[in-house]
Design goal:
mainly beta, 1 helix, 87 residues
């Protein structure tokens, strides 16, 4: 890492925050997730790898508008507005 970013004792990762989990969705048995925003922009942070507790597997929540048919596997996390996560 370039020295102008500073020196850290542990690797850093960029994460995007999501709103707190609510009740399971009855139809799927999964939690619904939505991004957390600040000033209508995605809210993220750089954190130490040591502060991570557990990774999660996000699944896009597909809508009825068929907009998702043009998504690619490499950009689906950027294109989707809502997600599911397994409990």
């Amino acid at each position: 890492m370039a020295s102008h970013y500073g020196h850290f004792p542990h690797p850093l990762v960029y994460i995007e925050w999501f709103r707190p989990l609510r009740d399971l969705e009855p139809a799927t048995g999964l939690y619904r997730l939505a991004r957390s925003t600040r000033n209508q922009l995605r809210f993220g942070a750089d954190v130490s790898v040591q502060d991570l507790f557990q990774a999660g597997h996000l699944m896009p929540r597909f809508g009825a508008d068929k907009e998702y048919v043009s998504w690619l596997s490499g950009d689906v996390l950027e294109c989707a507005d809502g997600f599911y996560i397994n409990p």
